[in-house]
Design brief:
Elements: E1 2-6, H1 13-21, H2 27-33, E2 47-51, E3 55-58, H3 65-73, H4 79-85, E4 99-102, E5 104-112, H5 119-127, H6 133-137, E6 153-158, E7 161-164, H7 171-179, H8 185-191, E8 205-208
Antiparallel strand pairs: 1-2, 3-4, 5-6, 7-8
Helix pairs in contact: 1-2, 2-8, 3-4, 7-8
Organism: Rhodococcus chondri
InterPro entries: Bact_Kbp, LysM, LysM_dom_sf
Protein name: LysM peptidoglycan-binding domain-containing protein
Length: about 210
Amino acid sequence: MVTEYEVVAGDTLSKLAQAFYGDATLFPVIAVANHIADPDVITVGQELLVPYITRRYTAAHGDTLSKLAQVFYGDATLFPVIAAANHIADPSVIEAGRSLLIPELGNVGHHTVVAGETLSELARRWYGDASLCPVISYPNHITDPDHLDVGRVLIRPGLNRRHTVAPGDTLRGLAQLHYGNADAFSIIAAANHIPDPDTISVGQVLHFPDLTNF
């Protein structure tokens, strides 16, 4: 999922990264995606392609997941979506300063359930992690996660696919696997704040920007 954006007066890549991702330091993702050599130079009227990256939010003192669900979704009862996306076992406890992923529930795609599908299988297919099935079940008001009706139309929450680095993995290899283009490794590096794309660690969790329609 890629957003087309036209630069207006006063824009900077950092401001755009803050607006789209909740994290100004992710501006290199936009720069790399648009082949911008100098991220300090963009021009009014320039057309940019902005890859989808799950919004980040830095928890502040007094925040609760219920409050954040109300702010981002207009529904405090959807707090388990944020908890699941961040592997928070106790949703009543979040530490100030922690960076949280906020899945997108608004402008998202849909999926029609076919025979044999389960929430765990869909979570693995969409997000790379079967344990993320609550991200799907809560927005779709599924009370029995072990049962899906064939033909039911589900909203597909926006959340970047993730991958835990294994021995032998390289960013180029992962880019080829996930995007069919090894040269897309630089976007993975930018999205995960990796200064040296030749150096990744076993066990490191990587998030892959959505380049659909790129």
